[in-house]
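Q: A reviewer asked whether we had any structural model of the full assembly, not just the individual parts. We don't, so I'm hoping you can provide one. Inputs are below.
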Amino acid sequence: MRDTGTPKKLVEVKNLKMHFPIRSGLLRRVTGAVKAVDDVSFDIFEGETLGLVGESGCGKSTCGRAVLRLYEPTSGSIIIDGEEIAHAPFDKLRRLRPKMQMVFQDPQASLNPRMTVAGIIGEPLMEHGKMSAKDRLDRIYELMDAVGLNRDFANRYPHEFSGGQRQRIGIARALALNPKFIVCDEPIAALDVSIQAQVVNLLEELQDRLGLTYLFISHDLSMVRHIADRVVVMYLGKVAEIGPRDGLYDDPLHPYTKALLSAVPEPDPVAHDSANRTILQGDVPSPANPPKGCNFSTRCPVAMDICRRLDPEVAEVKPGRFVACHLYNETTSQTAGNAAQTVGA
Amino acid sequence: MTDTPVTPPRSAPRSRLSMAWDSDVAHAFRRSPVAMISALVTILMVGAAICAPLIAPHDPFNPATLNLMNGFTPPGTPNMFTGESFFMGTDDQGRDVFSTILYGLRISLFVGFAAVGFAMVLGITLGLIAGYVGGLVETIIMRVADVQLTFPAILVAMLIFGVAKGITPPEYRNDVAIWVLIIAIGLSDWVQFARVVRGATMVEKSKEYVQAARLIGRSPGAIMLRHILPNVLSPVLVIATISLALAIIAEATLSFLGVGAPPTEPSLGTLIRIGQGFLFSGEWWILFFPACTLLILALAVNLLGDWLRDALNPRLR
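A: Here is a predicted structure for the entire assembly that you could use as a starting point for your response.
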């Protein structure tokens, strides 16, 4: 299933900014902005799974939603399959909707409690394309088979299902229009561990069979390691590091990635006790008032002077490895070299 | 995947009726004597109002059937001139009080239902738009609602009624009076629907199923009607029931004040206004029976609304 030639970029996100205005006072004047996503760029190649990780509130869900235009992005460009969607008008966007779909985090809230399963899965089919009622029902049954739902359940309501089954309904709805690109917004976070594996396996199987491209948003680092081909690490609305899965997990470059990966629980008790963990001090700063310079400078164990003054650019430091950190910046490499040694020690 | 045979579902879908019978609300209903009695009374009154021409012994609006000699006949006793007997007595013009109540109930209930229906349509529409669209639209709608809430509803209704009366030519006044009454009461009552629907819409709007519908490409109107509206209806049902009682009372109040239903189409309020003129001369029944009817009707509908509010709110159980 993996591409043999040069992989084609399916999704290109450039300088995406999603700022939510803070209004205060009697006149509701804009007094500031929560910079939920601040100047984020990444590409997703056709057929791959891009993992998007970060701690709660770092803007990863907002990023996923902005990519599908569930929010109006403040600025930036989003190109999906050759079409610019960041500022497309409603009609054009509606025409492009079938290509991009989403699997939501909360399977309870993502299904309308007043609609039957057939109604939920059939809604996208009603909205796009003119199918006869019988064709539509056939397609609904086909989708239910594809996600492993019993056809007998078609006339039931969402509250009659378990969490895993509801998530399957949500996946069937996302698949109804044969999308190319699916954003999975923490699709397993609300599920039991035993069900998580089932849903992830289902997503992988569907990817192989239908050639889907995923943006897989999660805070579960082990799950992302399992499913993703490449990984984006976000911190406080910005990209910290982008890299292929194995490279990034084996040799994290950004100090934040190192700290994040060292927090993954170790099942082997001996290794667990001897693990050399980086424990970050303090809390994530408020995205309404991010620190000057590098976002991570307030908590970074190896922060330098320049980090508090200058915001690092995302740069390719090794083939395929992009990092936003002064440690790897050529012009500051001298000081960086010393600091890097300190990290190693 | 494509060549799998399509089999119809084996278990037949449950009918809406059997689902309704098994629902929590139906269970709560069967366990509440107050709810059952008030529902029964309400249904009886509505039924009596609908079937008034069949039940009523006289047609109070046909002057040919009236006999002025029957005027002021006390309930249950034969008239001293004609020997006719009326179990709720007659008024000054010899109209059978029971018949006028049945016809009055018709008008009161019609005005009540129509006014609540009008208020509901208006309030739900504006509430949905305010809650879903937000921004300036929401500010304008909700400020208008707030300003209207600072006036007593009956004052708003009288104001609308007065303006409408001023702009309609006198020869049509009696014909349009009922409709003006409906619009006046409806307009004074939409605010609470709008507020509740707006609040519920804002809650539903943030849920992921609404975002899923947006992702499919559904238009805002379709999302409001197909997705949000069905999920905000249960609080609306409660308010509608309680509003019905209030609308009936508002209609009676306006008619009692002489600005409501015209004398040619007397509602319960008109009957009470007519009756109170005879209270001190001893003909108590002309006032008493219409007033009792209004009391029982308003009480029954109100109790039903209260029960419905409790039944639909799981936290109160």
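A: Points you may want to mention in the reply: Residues 332-345 of chain A have pLDDT under 50 and may be disordered. Chain A touches chain B at residues 65, 68, 70, 90, 93-95, 97-98, 100-102, 104-106, 109-114, 123-124, 127-128, 137-138, 141-142, 145-146, 151-155, 170, 173, 177 (CB under 8 Å).
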